[in-house]
Records
---
Amino acid sequence: VHRSQFPSSFLFGTATSYYQVEGAYLAGHKSLSNWDIFTHIPGKIEDGTNADVTDDQYHLFMEDVALMSDLGVNAYRFSISWARVLPSGRYGEVNSAGIDYYNNLIDALLLAGIKPFVTLNHYDIPQELEDRYGSWLSSEIQQDFGYFADVCFEAFGDRVQYWTTFNEPNVFVYDGYLSGTYPPARCSQPFGNCSAGDSALEPYIATHNVVLSHATAAEIYRNKYQEKQRGMIGIVISAHWYEPYSETPVDRLARERAMAFQFAWFVDPLVYGDYPPEMRQVLGSRLPIFSAEARRKLETKLDFIGINHYTTQYVKDCMFSPCPNSLSYGEACVYLTGEKDGVYIGNQTALDDFFVVPRGMEAMVTYVKERYNNTPMFITENGYAQATGPESVVLHDTSRIAYLESYLAALSKVMRTGADVRGYFTWSLLDNFEWLHGYLVRFGLYYVDFTTLQRTPKMSVKWYKNFLSGEETQKPS
Ligand code: GCO
């Protein structure tokens, strides 16, 4: 794959998120976020760790900007910690130390010719908002989120042209309210180790508040800032591709349901003003209704759709056929698997459900292109999971190079069909805190020694650098 296969204005970058890389969890008057609290509960994180320090990007951001500048990327996707900027949400003061930190980061990036691509919410909220009113289960969060967005547009929008309201709300809603594996650890349906107890409607209520929080922020941007600041505002969704397990009509339908419950649930309302018909069919009036006022707000639309794409799995119907486990997408009644007749759908990675299936990139982008009239898209995440191990082994990341090479080739192929994709971010700049897996899984181009915090380039750094400078690259054999 070659750089010249992409438009010259294309954004090429790396992605991170506040909780995963910043550390400094108490510095500069920051309050505790829901993830600070959650990771300190014994037994929640596989290796018993947390991100109190992680990469300490809060103190080392100049070094990280230098690494990016050396890589030759023209964009950096990062998220703003709500608890750093507004320790008590709209109930307290704006924290000037938090504003200063992001101002310094943004200025350093711009000086290095790197465009900031900013996420407002990457799973985290100030814990105080959870304690006060139950965060996403309360409509109060819409005002809080709108206020947070307003503060950020005002403080940073003169220099930030790309805004994302939410990162993967589909993940934090499922894991926070259905399986209970992420904060606030509510289990609306029996799943894994968790027994049902909380209301089965909670995921639908939480999503309703997320969608309306997006609309609130987008409306503020349109009304107060966009004309002057001339940026774009969008949302980012976790987007696995699903192939029907068999060619039977029920498995094909299962794929449509899985895609609706995974992706369209969050995007249809922002493009068409309502939840996907595939979901209404299953859930009827259990799915919330948008009021006339809400519908008006939803008309603010999306400037772009961010796609976090890593993998493809098979999907099997469980509505009409018996299944080993029918809960992969709750009431979607589907079963997801990477395996058929003892054969995996693609090479395995260090994450159980992440397989290497580059054709999925083409299919996923085509789905978004067709369903949403070719709304501009960014590939906001794509990357390869490596198991931790001796540094010398981890540095030799030829599987990552092969992965990036093949996924970028698939992306350029689908762009030739006219898909309006405007940028690509690889997850991640550096190894970091991988949520429930702690430090057991490494996604970085740069290796991080979590004792010394030293960053060391893996082989993939050289590969990405060559690619970005327009040199011929090759899959390592
Ligand atoms: C997200 C993702 C990232 C993960 C990455 C690898 O929310 O965007 O969960 O934060 O680290 O997807 O799993």
---
Amino acid sequence: VSTENELQTALYNHQFVLFYQPQVNACNGTLIGVEALIRWKHPKRGIVPPSGFISVAEETGMIREIGWWVLKEACQRMKSWQDQGAPRVPVSVNLSFNQFHDDSLVKRVCHALEVSGLCPEYLELEITESTMAEDLERSIKILNEIRALGVGVSLDDFGTGYSSLSYLKSLPINQLKIDRSFVLDIARSNRDQAIVTAIVSMAEQLWIDVIVEGIETKEQLLAIESCRCRAIQGYYYSRPLAEEDFSENYLA
Ligand code: G
Ligand code: G
Ligand code: MN
Ligand code: NA
């Protein structure tokens, strides 16, 4: 188990890296976005996934410093890829609870855009319902500030919280990500199909984009498509890729 000290050392010694998972249009396979996902290149333990250190980082508050690094790195990487001819699509960055509730959030976002030169429309912040649940009024205010910059906001893990519909009603988001728990049995479950279809049509009328994550099989893909959802992210299309693998596949 990692400690605060180890995380500090890791950050200082550049042991964190970002992987990038493509988001695609299921109809034609076009790239529509990329989610940045952190990994720890540990000198002894190899590549450590977020499950091995995010909770310690959250508890100790280290998640903020790590998260600000992620934000900057993702913006710089995407700008550099765009300069090298990559498709012009947004990069999605996950925001932790502590980052969202940090008073410097908006300033940090501006700074990351400024130093990278990335246009705001190519940055999207993924925020979970539970992160915003505590103080809805304040969350709305923060989201309005973020949206005013031209940066997108995606409601991550949609459907797993307690009152998804009230969030949908009041939060100024432009995308929602249907949680992969709805995808798991979708090929067999009429109930899951009904729920996903309803979410898609509701979002459509609210002018909110929908993406589904966790598509692993052809059967799941077909079922999701029949729910009229086109945007997908999942192992079926691609696992999260190391930077160089992403470059190799998308800069040609
Ligand atoms: O990459 P993977 O699917 O293993 O990620 C597991 C979890 O870690 C997901 O819930 C994801 O949102 C979270 N995660 C990945 N990268 C980051 C990050 O940069 N910041 C935060 N706060 N969470 C992340
Ligand atoms: O909570 P969040 O949406 O940020 O989680 C993203 C996580 O989901 C990443 O850790 C990523 O590796 C994982 N992931 C992406 N696609 C799939 C998939 O098809 N199946 C599973 N089981 N996990 C996936
Ligand atoms: Mn996410
Ligand atoms: Na999610």
